[in-house]
DNA sequence: TAGTGGTCTAGACCACGTG
DNA sequence: ACGTGGTCTAGACCACTAG
């Protein structure tokens, strides 16, 4: 009965069966799975074995336990995140349009919390900003919410010496954008580099962003430079994988490949 | 004893203790953890409880079980992946240089497998290429290895009508690059859009790329366009999160934010 | 208050690679 | 051959929240 060369564990076969039902749409997003007890009866195994199967699917991000109601097929919905937004106001690629519409169509309620601190930056930041040891930074920590649910987190670091007297110190939204403030300080950011790391969240991040099991994150570390190559801003953005698609556009400038 | 408001489960506290030792460096990457039996004795709990703790850390990507030797602290090493490489030959940002060197420093042995098929493309591809139903595509499926270990997977789709007589059909490496072949066919790709999705791997991907538990992937869907906005190439790249950092550079073109 | 998943125990046997 | 983690059982009690 077992597939040749793969005498699967019972719990793996149960997981496969359920995964198949999810992928085939037989179990739809948002729909409830049978209870652990019911699955145990159906497959004639102990509850612990059913549990192993469900744990597997949980960690694949396919199902979510909602105690004490039961397990549900995860509903995933991703919004477009464009790091280039500040530099390139208007994208234009055919199949993106529908996405943009989709996103705009429903009036989701955005909100955010901002707090500003003066801190000795972590190494990863100090390196990117080219700071001397003990040189302080201002961090603007922002958490964005959509309909009350955490959406992403965003920490912007600036050299304290650069922004100490500016609006960046104020824990409110900066309407014209932080970049405009930098420009007024003679440090307009004209180029940036983004480094994207993909990993499982730390427990801190999981709590802060209310991440269920099987939810990886993308961490984007952006470093902004002035025209004379001086780093003036380092941003660490944490995006839950289930809620975002990161989009970049590439234009070839030199015809040389 | 339990923190106020957070009467943690035993296995969570064990996991926290071990995580702390890993983060503090008390347990170094590559080092072996105590056995399940030993941990059970140390914390005076059943093996199943220790197991829950270890499962947690496994799914956070912190430890790897290497049966029957024991659990080991995961060693992570990421290489730079630059989607823009074909368009921008030379990056130049201070703190990147060390990384590039790091990557080059050790003679890791790259290899790859390529196979070419003619297939009816999945919807996600047909949409991006703007194909009619039943219009066929050529896929070049490539898996890259480093020192024999799977490194990433890369499927390039081309409209069959465009490339049917070209070198793209040949299952070998194309030295001058697929883009040059497209150019010769009058379909030079001059612009592209990248969509990055972050999620847990499917079982198929996990097997193909030999992914351990707690290893998320980045899926990059790139669509390449000609100067007259015709999509000519769609690429799906799957990058194990533990082995890659995706790097983009942004240049502001319009001075308008 | 009933029923769900969450946690935990105390055992058992197995598969597998290292020595 | 040994010891590891992998799997599975058959119970038990608890915490939470929908009804």
UniProtKB/TrEMBL annotation, chains A, B:
Keywords: DNA-binding, Transcription, Transcription regulation. One of its GO terms (biological process) is negative regulation of DNA-templated transcription. Residues 8-76 form the HTH gntR-type domain. CDD domains: WHTH_GntR. It comes from the Bacteria. InterPro entries: Bact_HTH_transcr_reg, Chorismate_lyase_/UTRA_dom_sf, Tscrpt_reg_HTH_GntR, UTRA, WH-like_DNA-bd_sf, WH_DNA-bd_sf. GO terms for molecular function: DNA binding; DNA-binding transcription factor activity. This is GntR family transcriptional regulator.
